[in-house]
Amino acid sequence: MKIKFFAASVVLVLAGTVIGFGLSQLEFNKGMAPASEKKEKKILYWVAPMDPNFRREQPGKSPMGMDLIPVYEGADSDDGGEKALRISPGVVNNIGVRTAKVERRTLHNMIDTVGFIMLNDDMTRDVHVRTEGWVEELAVKTEGERVKKGSLLFRIYSRELSNAQAEYVQALQINQPSLAEASRMRLEALGMSKRQIDELTGDKITTELVDIYSPQDGYVVALNIREGMFVQPKTTIFTLSDLSTVWIMAEIYEHQAKKVAKGQKAEMRLPFVPGKTWEGSVDHVYPTVDPTSRTIRVRLKFKNPDEQLKPNMYTDITIHGAAKKNVVTIPREALIRSGKSERVVLALGKGRFRPAQVVSGMESNDDIEIVVGLKEGETVVTSGQFLLDSEASLDASLLRMADAGGEHKTHTDMQMPVTGKGTIEAVKTAERKLNITHEPIPAIGWPTMTMDFRVGKDVDLGAVKSGDSIDFMLKKDNAAGDYVIETLSSGGTK
Question: What pTM did the predictor assign?
Answer without folding.
Answer: 0.53
